Each structure stands twice: as structure tokens, then as C-alpha cells.
Write a sequence for this structure.
């Protein structure tokens, strides 16, 4: 017995029933992401107010306390859905370097990522979150993130006017027109639609870059 | 006494205390419009769910039963706000005749009216109504009206491709981009903003007609 116990202990040095902390952190992140993705789908299908933490737990075959292990409350989940979608757009601002391409090229890359994000599972949360009677604190956090994207688009338009790749225009109103057209995708796009996110992006880019008047 | 009473009766033939029915219908319409306009302002300021029929009555210095004399329920008021805004856009489709101008000219007239409608008192209701957990019947009625506008824009784009005033494009997705940019105005426009509705329309038309690429 002592030997077996010792044997077990000896093995445990190499094979602990606890995974290394790096692996535990990774597992925790995977589970947290599953909570957020499942919630994003549920919010879109049933609406935010009609989805409870219990519903999200049931969809993942766990109990409510398990969900609270990963997120503080439902509003926090909505915020994370919002942020996950927005992070995809933010990444596009850093993908192409100003030194290597015109501002117009970088702007079209942002439009493409924007279309992908809005047609993703997180699109509904990104566009509809603000209509959900959120707490003032949460509204402010969401508006701060939104403002970063808005400012990023305005900056690209300004740079494009400077480098000659974008026609002289009102950067603020033009950025609103772009973001509005993109955000509105969440109102009409349905999963399994005839056009892929990339095809939608192609048509949007064509309209915004070349305009409706024949060239 | 009899004489006085007779005298009153005699006068009443010419000056009835009741107004002619045409005038009564006009007064009723004016009052009904006041109910809808007051409700539109209240919905935008406080939100639809936070505004009661009592609130609307109080704003008009009348009682709740008076309001019910003009509308059946709160959802009906929201629908009327929505329809009033949309009617302004619909009118633009009929203002200029196909025989007298190109489809592009007619489309820009629609964009101008659209911007005016969305920045009006009714803009919030037009764009946010569908997020308010309306009854299935009401959602369907609103979607039918929206679809008319959408189809009208697609038709103009198709006519523009045919008459050569609009570049070859995907009419459906282009109509969505236009409507999305316009509808989104309700999310960022504030009363007393630095640009007038017409100035916003000018910039939108410039972006959509000429595109961002220098010509």
C-alpha cells in the first residue's frame, strides 16, 4: 500500500491530476469564450431581455454558478459580445501599415473586416446592444469602444485626403455614412443568405469607392 | 322667456354651437396629429417602454380617455409615428416624374427627403420601432411599409442602370447600403446639431453619387 501510494505520488510528479497553470488558463479562456459565443447566439435568436443566465447555462449543459465562474452578470456578457465583434474591426486598423499602402486601401480592408464582424455571431450584439436599456456605466463603456472605431475611420479618411487616395469630403459625416451602412447589415442579414460576408463587402466597397455615377 | 328661447333657436340655425362636420373632421385630425407628434417626442426622449398613455395625456393637458378617443393603444401610436415619417419619404418617390428627370436625379431627391424624415421628430420611431418588442401583427405592418421604401429604392437603381445615370451595380445590396446609412442618422443626429438636415443630405449624396475615389 505504502509502495503503491508512493508509486502514485512518484508518478504524480510527472503526471499531476492538475494541469500546468498555463494549460488551466487556456482551458479557462476556451470555456469563457464558449459562454460568450453561446450567449451571442441566444441574444440574437431570443433577444437580450428574453435570455437568462439559466438559459445560457442550459445550452452549455452546466449550472448557473458555473457561468458566474466566468462572467459577473448578463450585462457583462453582452459587453463581451460587443467587444469581441469590435476587436475584429480594430485588428483591421493595424493589419496594413501606412508606409506600405494608401489610406484608401487600408479603409477598404477595414470595411471588409467590418462586414465580416457584423455578419458574425456577434453582429446582433454589436448593433443592438445600445437599444437594450443598459446601465449608464455599461452604455458609457460601449460608447467608448464605438468611438475608437469611429475615430479610426475618420482618421483614415483624413489620411486619404492627405495622400490623395480619397476625394476631399467631410470626414465625420462620411464616416457616419460608412458605419451606418455597415451596422445596418445586422438588420437585414440572415444566416445562410445568398451572399457571403466577403461578397457583401465587395459590393459595399464598390459603392463607396466608385460611387453610383458611371465613371 | 319663450321669445328669448325662440330667439336663441333662431340664431342657432345660422350659428350652431356645433361646427360644420368638415370643420369638426379637420379639428379631429389636428388633435390626432398633436397626439402623434407629442408621443413621437416623448418616445425619443424617454424611450417607448418608459412612456405611458398617461404621460402623453399629461403633456397635452388632457385625460387618458381623451387620448383613447384618437388612438386605440400605445402600439398604434408608435405605428402612426412610423407611418408619418415614412410617408414623407414615400412622397419623394412621386414628386419628380420619370419623364422629366433621370433615375439618379430622382434617387437623390429621395435621399434628401429621407434625411429630412430621419432627422425629424419621427426619426427615432422610424428606426428604433422594430427593436421595441412589438406584437407580431404590428411588426408585420411595419415591415410591409418598410419594404415599400426598400423596393422603391431598388426600382430607382434599376431604372438608373437602364437610363445610364447609375453605374451597373447590385440594386438590392446598394439599396441596403443607402437605407442603412440613412437610417443610422437616427443613432447619431442630435437636435440643434451643427449641420442642418439638408447639409447632411448634401454630404451623403456627394459620397454615394461620386464615391470616395477622386474623379
Amino acid at each position: 500500500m505504502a509502495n503503491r501510494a508512493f508509486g502514485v505520488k512518484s508518478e504524480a510528479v510527472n503526471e499531476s491530476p492538475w494541469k500546468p497553470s498555463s494549460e488551466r488558463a487556456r482551458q479557462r479562456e476556451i470555456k469563457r469564450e464558449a459562454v460568450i459565443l453561446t450567449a451571442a447566439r441566444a441574444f440574437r435568436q431570443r433577444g437580450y431581455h428574453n435570455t437568462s443566465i439559466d438559459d445560457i447555462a442550459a445550452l452549455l449543459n452546466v449550472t448557473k454558478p458555473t457561468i458566474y465562474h466566468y462572467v459577473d452578470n448578463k450585462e457583462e456578457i453582452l459587453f463581451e459580445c460587443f467587444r469581441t465583434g469590435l476587436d475584429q474591426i480594430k485588428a483591421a486598423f493595424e493589419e496594413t501599415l501606412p508606409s506600405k499602402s494608401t489610406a484608401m486601401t487600408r479603409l477598404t480592408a477595414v470595411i471588409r473586416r467590418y462586414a465580416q464582424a457584423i455578419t458574425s455571431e456577434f453582429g446582433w450584439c454589436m448593433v443592438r446592444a445600445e437599444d437594450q436599456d443598459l446601465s449608464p456605466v455599461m452604455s458609457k463603456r460601449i460608447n467608448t469602444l464605438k468611438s475608437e472605431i469611429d475615430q479610426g475611420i475618420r482618421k483614415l479618411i483624413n489620411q486619404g485626403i492627405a495622400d490623395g487616395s480619397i476625394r476631399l469630403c467631410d470626414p465625420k459625416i462620411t464616416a457616419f455614412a460608412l458605419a451606418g451602412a455597415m451596422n445596418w447589415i445586422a438588420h437585414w442579414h440572415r444566416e445562410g443568405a445568398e451572399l457571403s460576408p466577403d461578397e457583401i463587402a465587395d459590393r459595399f466597397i464598390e459603392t463607396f469607392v466608385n460611387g453610383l455615377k458611371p465613371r
